[in-house]
Amino acid sequence: MNFPFYIAKRYLFSKKSTNAINIISGISVIGVAVATMALVVTLSVFNGFHDLVASFFTQIDPQIKITPVQGKTVAADDPILLKIRQMDEVEVATECLEDQALAVYGNRQLMVQVKGVQDNFDSLTHVREILEGDGTFELHAADMHYGIPGLGIAYQLGLGYTYQQPLRIYAPRREGQLNMANPVEGFVEDELYSPGVVFCIKQAKYDNHYILTSLAFTRQLFDSPGQLSSLELRLKPGSDFEAVKARMEQLAAGHFYVHDRYEQQDDTFRIMKIEKLIAYLFLTFILLVACFNIIGSISMLIIDKRDSVMTLRNLGASNHQITRIFLFEGRMISVVGAVIGILVGLLLCWLQQQYGLVRLGSSEGNFVIDAYPVSVHPQDVILILLTVIAVGFLSVWYPVRYFSRRLLFR
Asked: Percent helix, strand, coil in the chain (nearest 5)?
């Protein structure tokens, strides 16, 4: 039997001579539990937003995107790209070429990102699931090229789902000097027609900037025959994604970047990770403040149990064992608070998932979702438990040793 732990357990649950000690101990447990609950709920909400944003991106982002290390474009028949495309695990490969251009419709104009893709782009991504309108996914018909704008572009240019007049696209010529007397000659002009649909990912990065069209159109517009700015891939079901990606990186080393979906949106997810880290550190500091209540509870318990300690010393207990009794006391308070806080936090997360108790707005439809998203990750729960235990243990170590020497061992 662990003698200090046994005595500490008796002290924790036994009645004290002063009721204030019981009250302070209860407050200490509640303080640790509330801080722990806040950690569980807050980190789970950040996880929920992370998963929500990831679900939007994956509707149009490929599984793997390969881009050149140097320059904007590279030859489509590059030997490295050909080797990657011929890998057995690759099911769909799409050549893409994108760059900035000026879109003009009526008396409105807007800088946009024109992305040309091959006809199998709908097999590569879930683009058909994000289309709105009466038409369908179509990039060209004979010599006529269609343009599928994002919903934000359609709104800013006044296009609607189906624009009646052709959408004029201007891109600067890559060769020659600009004639200031006739600056229009310095641009390549072409037209896009409406397939009767727009796409909506509910992400401004795409909806407000991108127009999807055929690869042939962008190669002509940007004067880049046989070039691509990215090779986008989808693997066969059951493929070992990490192993295939590692092989691609080995083939492309020094020449191409190989990015998965999360790496393609690295800036967005990096910001979300930083926000989550800051929230974790801030709430950990609050937890540390809550642990100060444990110090007060332990110091009053030491005073209350001075006579009992003398009895234990007369029975043969060493100073080290007596100190460990009160260390265990403080640690048990932090562990009990941690367990209660985690259980309550998980309960609140479950209630939010099932019933959406905390809403994002007063009326439905103002946001992509109506209630705060919640996603509980087991590794976060383990991290929170270890954090609370570590903070609780460290916060009582020095005060217990100090008060023990001052009040018990004089």
From this structure: 55, 20, 25
